[in-house]
Amino acid sequence: MSSEEKKTKQLNFRDVSTCEATIQMLQKAATDGVETAFSRAADMKPCPIGADSACCKHCFMGPCRLVSKDPYSKVGVCGATIDTIQARNFARVVASGGSAHTDHGMGILDVFREVVKGNIQEFQIKDEQKLRDVASSIGIAVAGRSTKEIAVDLYNELEKTYTQVEGEIPFVKRVPPKTLELWRKHGVVPRGAMREIMEIMHRTHMGVDQDYENIVKQCSRTALADGWGGSMVATELSDILFGTPKPLVAGVNMGYLKEDHVNIIIHGHEPLLFEAMIASANDPANLEKAKAAGAKGIQLLGMCCSGAEVLGRHGVPHAGNFLSTEAVIATGAVDAMAVDVQCIMQALSSMSECYGTKFFTTNPRAKIEGAAHIEFNHHTPRESTEKIIAMALDRFKNRPAKIVIPQRRDLGVHGFSHEYVNYMLGGTFRGSYTPLNENIINGRIRGVAGVVGCNNPRVKQDYAHVELVKELIKNNVLVVQTGCSQIALAKAGLMKPDAAVLAGEGLQEVCETVGMPPVLSLGSCVDNSRILIACAEMVRVGGLGNSIADLPVAGAAPEYYSEKAICIGQYFVASGVYTVFGVTFPSVEGTKFHQLLFEGLEELGFGKWGFAKDPIEIAHMMIRHIDKKREALGIMGERERKLFSMEDRRA
Ligand code: NFS
Ligand code: SF4
């Protein structure tokens, strides 16, 4: 036994995850002598200087490391201060995270263009109403015009989100006027994503922008080009092409793998591969082939954000979030896993090899050494999905003797969209955000929290997500969710209407009247744009202030790991939302840069960052902020006021 294997066996998996299925599979993997991110994390101490973002490797006079204990005692070889170094590092994180979402959005835009031109037959405009709504929201005339005419205009307009060199990206037309005014005043309205990202890369090169405040401005501008740009384009066009989600009952967890079926997992982010895969898996010819191979059928499952896209849209079961992607392979039941882009651990390739799972990359942007590549071409999507099915059938016929499927299945309601929140709370005939605002004003709902983001093996899987959300709803805060966080809560059973019993009295009353769960599942990470649109609607409807910064709302990503999460955090902050992160934060407390993110931005009229590790502490930081906003709006009831001042005194 190698020392690796010994270490793996020593880990107590109950300490690293609260997901029962994952724990069971981690134990199996350890017995099988296979390592995972959990064991590797235990073995890999993070560099403390890097964790504080106190090092710079932007040129080859360095790398330069400043001591994070006394960060102003030293500068880099070029003279760069701790503030410059941290701001530049942060900016590059925002640029990378923003690139991921905007490039994803551009991939969807490419497909939309080809569909509009008639060059792709497999995909169509599925939701014409949404096409019209989105087009008119950015000033495109729709009355009396054909779908095609509107779609052509919409394509041309949305392309500017990326390529425009001057002016403002189209979706800023949806931003509340007061918020937009603030952005204009500070020069952070994005022109086009390509320009903003290029400018960040330029400005963070050695010897260019060496004023942390000026760098942070460009961080906001670039992040906004993601939230109100690339991500929003991804969400809206995916809805137009594949349908706007409507609440439906769907299942989450590994128990949806079926021993007697061919199991295929799609993991990654874009909905395109998955949509084509659904068509292939339902093709009678393939079902016949599966039967001939001795299977009862073909079971498709999603993981991470690809999974979140189709969970809400089509009710395809979801096998688990980011830290379960390796564990699921250890079941031995996965015949094929196909991935597109983002959040795909390289280790999945060797993991798959250990268990005989066929592992495929499909996107030319994302190949993995050792993995077979079956390229997905959006002009002929079925070509690759047919190949993947054939390979999965092949593996099914040669499955290893031992398969273990954790028997956990969690049903919940998924597929809320900003449009549906309208309809649900307002009713068919008076669909609007008015009832939501009314319930916030009358205090039944204290405020709204977005809890989103990843898993991170540096903290116990799902623990912070679940405890944070429970504490929020207990305090009458309505929670909206996306990404891996939403999967954590689905596994904990909170996406069921009867989870309302865990909510405070007021929220419980609203949930019971409407028949909705206290936690709403909104989709993938790019669907955080739905939260932005919901915020804009809340401002537009009135009674809760004039800008997003006035709303009694807050955001959190308590288990984040990715650069995308930081970019999301920055666009929420720049939009006016208090946003609290867990795990770690890439800055040194007490520096001017840290001060700007955690206080200064709010003083300028934006939102601000917060940080805490403990989920209950995060919840109360968010609740205090919500109460502060309620107080400012003059909607703090007597009962809440008492609680608020007590909390306040303690704080
Ligand atoms: Ni968001 Fe989705 Fe999950 Fe995090 Fe990764 S899958 S885009 S980055 S880990 S939530
Ligand atoms: Fe060091 Fe300055 Fe070069 Fe960074 S840019 S590595 S601080 S010399």
Structural description of this entry:
- By secondary structure, the chain is α/β, with parallel strands linked by helices.
- The chain has three domains: 79-242, Substrate Binding Domain Of Dnak, Chain:A, Domain 2, CATH 1.20.1270.30; 254-397, Rossmann fold (3-Layer(aba) Sandwich), CATH 3.40.50; 413-650, Rossmann fold, CATH 3.40.50.
- Helices cover 50% and strands 10% of the residues.
- The protein has 26 helices and 16 strands.
- A six-stranded parallel beta sheet has the order 6-5-4-7-8-9, with helices on both faces.
- Helix 25 (615-633) crosses helix 26.
- The protein is globular and about 65 Å long.
- The mean pLDDT is 94.
- FE(4)-NI(1)-S(5) cluster is lined by residues 269, 304-305, 321-322, 343, 453-454, 483-484, 525, 562, 564-565.
What structural category arises from helix and sheet content?
Answer: alpha/beta
Largest beta sheet: strand ordering: 6-5-4-7-8-9
The tally of strands reads: 16
Number of helical elements: 26
The averaged pLDDT comes out at 94
Query: What is the CATH top level name of the largest domain?
Result: Alpha Beta
The CATH architecture term of the largest domain is 3-Layer(aba) Sandwich
The helix content is 40-55%
Brief rundown of the structure:
By secondary structure, this protein is α/β, with parallel strands linked by helices. It has 26 helices and 16 strands. The radius of gyration is 24 Å and the shape is globular.
